[in-house]
């Protein structure tokens, strides 16, 4: 297992108030899989992502990555190996940096590749996410939402990460661009043997990309299983209520998504 959480809990305290954001979560994520963490607002899924990223220290429990304990203070090597793709691509990129500068910064910070070859590596990364090398000179403001998210994905790839935390990565995109970005993510996972921790409230998205699904409610994991099993035979009443709220997808919409070949 590439990522293991053992009896993980997280409590926030503000004055007299205590909020149990995560409670006794045990979860194993295999290398190369896409593990979806789903639940409504306040379920603890984003807290889980932030604890894995090292942004919040756990109150109790243990996290191991590639067989080694993850310390509360992450090293540069840990930050390189575990990358984040944020929800809003508009705020994820520095508006004052060109696309090339954002990607080059990741290479420079982590000392990846020879300095003289990093410009060519930037162009390769853009190609990997379906963007022409000419996009390197553009500012984020000159890109569409889908293009900005592709650049954010390329930045995670630049770090040669092994675990990518995807925090609602398509929720700010329209439905057609969502489908294209999800297809790209799935292709990259297969090609590079990446592991995804996919945080979302949208089970329709989960159905198209996840290998397994963990369902969270009020800080607790109430159900986990293969995606097909979760959708066809959910065992928990909360999971059934989430699935019942997923909009019905028509055969025409399925056909439209299958025909998508363009890039945003």
What does this entry look like structurally?
The protein has a single domain, classed as P-loop containing nucleotide triphosphate hydrolases (Rossmann fold, 3-Layer(aba) Sandwich), CATH 3.40.50. By secondary structure, it is an alpha/beta fold. It is globular and about 55 Å long. A 6-stranded mixed β-sheet has the order 6-7-8-3-9-10, sandwiched between helices. A 4-stranded antiparallel β-sheet has the order 2-1-4-5, covered by helices on one side. It contains 11 helices and 10 strands. The C terminus is likely disordered.
Radius of gyration: 19 Å
What is the global morphology?
globular
CATH superfamily: P-loop containing nucleotide triphosphate hydrolases
Side by side, the strands of the main sheet go 6-7-8-3-9-10
Helix content: 25-40%
Overall tally of structural domains? 1
CATH architecture: 3-Layer(aba) Sandwich
Order of helices and strands: EEEHEEHEHHHHEHEHEEHHH
Do you know the CATH topology? Answer: Rossmann fold
Low-confidence parts, pLDDT < 50 over ≥5 residues? 260-264
Using the coordinates above, name the CATH class.
Alpha Beta
Mean pLDDT: 88
The major pleated sheet works out as: 6 strands, mixed
Distance between the termini: 35 Å
User: Strand pairing plus helix content: what structural class?
Assistant: alpha/beta
Strand portion, in percent?
25-35%
Q: Specify the number of helices.
A: 11
Let me know the number of strands.
10
Membrane topology: Peripheral membrane protein
Main location: membrane
InterPro entries: AAA+_ATPase, ABC_transp_ATP-bind, ABC_transporter-like_ATP-bd, ABC_transporter-like_CS, Oligopep_ABC_C, P-loop_NTPase
Protein name: ABC transporter ATP-binding protein
